[in-house]
Amino acid sequence: MRLSIKAFARLFVRLRCGSETAAKLGVPAADAKAEGARLLGDPRVRREIKKLDNDDQQTLAYVKTGLSRLAFGQVNDVVALVFADQPSPEQIAQADLFNVSEIKRVKGGGVEVKFFDRQKALEKLFELDPELREQSKADQFISAMTQSSQGDISGLLDGEDEP
C-alpha cells in the first residue's frame, strides 16, 4: 500500500510516530513500522513535515488538538486491552493509546496503566486560547462589579448610614 506523502506528513505532525501514522492510514500492523520508517526517510516527506512544522498557526492547532485529546479523550481502548487475555498485534496497533503515559506489568501478573493529567491539559488549553482568557477577564470584571454593588446594597440593608 502506497501512502500519500502529504497525508502521511499531515498526520505525522500531529502524532509524531511513524508507525502509528502508517497504521492510522491503513497500513497493516505488521508493516506499519517499516512503512513509517521508509516514509520518514524520504526527503519529500521530511520537507513536507518541516513546512508544516514552520506554519505556526497549524502547529498551534495541533497542540490544541493534542491537549483536547488528553483532556476529553476516551480510555475504552486501553480498558479493552487490559482485560483482553491475549490482544493481537492488530488490536494493539489500532488502539487509541494517546491518553496513556505509562503501561507496566506489576508483580502478581497485573497491569498498571497511568494516564496523562486531564486537569493540566485543560489548564494548558485555557492558557493557549486567547478567547477563553478574554472571556475570563470579562467574567472577573463583571463579578467584581456585581460584588461591589451588592456590598453597597447590603450595607444599606444592614441599617448603615449612607456616606
The number of helices is: 9
Overall average residue pLDDT = 82
Shape: flat
Rg, nearest Å: 25 Å
| Number of beta strands | 2
Structural class: mainly alpha
Topology:
Elements: H1 5-15, H2 18-24, H3 29-40, H4 43-54, H5 56-72, H6 76-83, H7 89-94, E1 100-105, E2 111-115, H8 118-128, H9 130-157
Antiparallel strand pairs: 1-2
Description:
The chain is mainly α and 163 residues long. The chain folds into two domains: 54 residues; 66 residues, no CATH class. Helices cover 69% and strands 7% of the residues. It contains nine helices and two strands. It has a two-stranded antiparallel ribbon with strand order 1-2. Helix 1 crosses helix 4 and helix 2 crosses helix 3. The longest helix is centred in the C-terminal third of the chain and has 28 residues. The N and C termini lie far apart (82 Å).
